[in-house]
Amino acid sequence: MRVLLVEDDRALSLGIQHALEREGWSVDLLADGEQALSVGLLGEHDMAVLDLGLPRKGGMDVLRCWRAKGARLPVLLLTARDQLADRVAGLDAGADDYLVKPFDLPELLARLRALRRRAAGRLEEKLTLGALEMDLADRELRHQGQRVALSPRELALTELLLQKSGRVVTKESIVARLSSWEADFSENSVEVYVHRLRKRFAELGVVIKTVRGFGYVMEAADAEPSADPPAGAVPPSGPAPDAA
Ligand code: CA
Fold first, then answer.
1. CA-CA to 14 of 20 to 30 Å: which in 30, 76, 104, 150?
2. How far apart are the CA of 62 and the centre of ligand 1, in A?
3. Cα(184) to centroid(ligand 1), Å
4. Cα(24) to centroid of ligand 1, in Å?
5. For 100-151, how does the pLDDT look when each residue is reduced to its tens digit (9 = 90+)?
6. DSSP string spanning 17-45?
7. Could you tell me where in the chain the CATH 1.10.10.10 domains are found?
């Protein structure tokens, strides 16, 4: 999960950033409405947290432009102004949710998790594969009911692989999902993380197969030997749809 956080109150934005990173989400931080406008249109983010009062261009204008130009990422508005009019205008302009400052970080996190579930159109809140189960509400990975302790990044990678279990996840899409501007995540780091998870999951009945030069497939160890890495999943050239 990669979040665009647009907030010009430095102390607040750093607090939010750290809280989100502890959840294993990647965060890109901006403090300026003009920049936010163009960055939000790049399609690199899964979600945005957008302050209304921003330098150069207000959050409401940013949001309207995003929606007018077809950016569909879920947006949670932050506002210091708790008047009804602002909230209504924000929702009318295409916001998915809002929070009035001051707010508690756990509430922000809970709302973002809810947005993510809604965005995924997912009714169930669990991803499962074999005896592994990830609860998306509390972001815990369990094996036969026992918690599997992973670092936030390992959890984020596991979530991505679980979402597409049985299908190829490209290295590019993993890099895009786990990177932020401050902490670049290279294809080499992907290999390191996959190696770690592979060792970890070997005893839990889940395998991560390498599709050479392309990416990875996670599946249950006792799954039918799938016709080698899905031939159809490898495009004739260029990145796969996954890479988007
Ligand atoms: Ca502000």
1. 150
2. 13
3. 27
4. 25
5. 998 999 999 999 988 988 877 655 678 899 989 998 777 789 999 899 999 8
6. HHHHHHTT-EEEEE--HHHHHHHHTTS--
7. 126-242
Q: How far is the CA of 101 from the centre of ligand 1 (A)?
A: 10
Q: Is the pLDDT of residue 84 over 90?
A: no
Q: What is the DSSP letter of 243?
A: G
Ligand 1 centroid to Cα of residue 237, in Å, is 45
How crowded is residue 205: how many other Cβ atoms within 10 Å of its Cβ? 16
Separation of CA 32 and ligand 1 centre (Å): 9
CA of 98 relative to ligand 1 center, distance in Å:
14
pTM attached to this predicted model? 0.68
How far, in whole angstroms, is CA 226 from its chain's centroid? 28
C-alpha 149 – ligand 1 centre gap (Å) = 37
Q: What are the structure tokens assigned to 52, written together?
A: 């209304």
Amino acid at 224: E
Q: Which amino acid is at 123?
A: L
**Domain span(s) for CATH 3.40.50.2300 in the chain:** 2-119
State in Å: Cα 183 to ligand 1 middle: 25
Q: How far apart are CA 27 and CA 20, in angstroms?
A: 7
Q: How far is ligand 1, taken at its centre, from the CA of residue 140, in Å?
A: 33
CA atoms within 13 A on the CB side of 175: 14
Assign domain 126-242 to a CATH class. mainly alpha
The correct answer on CATH 3.40.50.2300 for the domain covering 2-119 is yes
